[in-house]
Amino acid sequence: MQTARYIIKRVLLAIISLFAIITITFFLMNLMPGDPFMSEKASEESRAILIAKYGLDQPVYIQYIRYLKNLFHGDMGTSYVLQKGRAVTTIITESFSVSLSLGARALLLAIVCGITLGCISGLCKDRLPDSIIRVISSLGISMPGYVVASVLMILLAVNLGVLPVTYSKPGGWIMPMITLAIYPTSYLTRLTRASILEVMNQDYLLTERAKGMSEFVVVFVHALKNSLIPVITYLGPLTASILTGGFVAESVFNVPGLGRYFVSSISSRDYTMIMGVTIFYSALIVIMNLVCDILYKIVDPRIKLD
């Protein structure tokens, strides 16, 4: 019952948060100079006709009310520029399916490798494996995504020729997956290591060692479970971010996913796409944070959901 009340409260707060995001984004978007049809090779008369057709010549507050009414009925409008005339919901659905397939693989790789390497690093504190893992994770965190993508492309596609450059070819998902996974893997490694070291000297672990359990079992079974709270906290926004794709990875490897619309919709002033992608991304973050809050209770029953 307590969990149900908590979920209902969080859902209501999520609705309020989404409403605030929609409002702020809409009005900030309309503060940008120009309009979606500035790049059109058309006369001023034709441009004025297009602006009037989509109601962009009306006061902003009227456009806002109209958008909310349409959104309430599940209509996000049609794209003005990027895919002219196509429904925004259709574009997001098609592109997100690609990003979801790629992002799920990258997320699984990041979680498995990050937590495993973090545990090994904590188990071998101040020894050679720990030093190697810390250096590698530091490099992974500090390197920008376009550098990772470029290095992978030069090494695996150009020099060795073992993987294709573009996403559409067989095996083309491997390099963008690694590009997406490098940073979260490195961050999860450092986060898990710090959490493991924090709980390593707890009394219950000393008791397990006194029972004759190996250090491997103590770390990977008992210490790991109680050190996952910070990791789960990070997994919420990470999951939303990685599942919606990365602009760098999707641009470099020509992935037809959702990530490329984050920047291209803004640069092209495609108002409906800006709103659609923002709402979708925000809703995904809210949902994943709620899921992570519930996971806290599963990992540590002592936590109360208030």
Shape: flat
Secondary-structure element series: HHHHHHHHHHHHH
Query: How many strands?
Result: 0
Which spans of ≥5 residues are poorly predicted at pLDDT below 50? Answer: none
The profile of the biggest β sheet is: none
| Approximate strand percentage | under 5%
Number of helices: 13
Cα-to-Cα separation, first versus last residue: 11 Å
- Give the helix/strand class: mainly alpha
Radius of gyration from the alpha-carbon trace, in angstroms: 24 Å
Mean pLDDT: 82
SSE inventory with pairings:
Layout lengths: L1 H30 L12 H10 L6 H13 L15 H36 L4 H15 L2 H15 L14 H26 L3 H8 L4 H12 L2 H15 L3 H6 L6 H9 L3 H29 L7
Describe what this molecule looks like in 3D.
The model has no long low-confidence stretch (mean pLDDT 82). The protein has 13 helices and no strands. The chain is an all-alpha fold and 306 residues long. The longest helix is centred in the middle third of the chain and has 36 residues. It starts with a helix and ends in a 7-residue tail after the last helix.
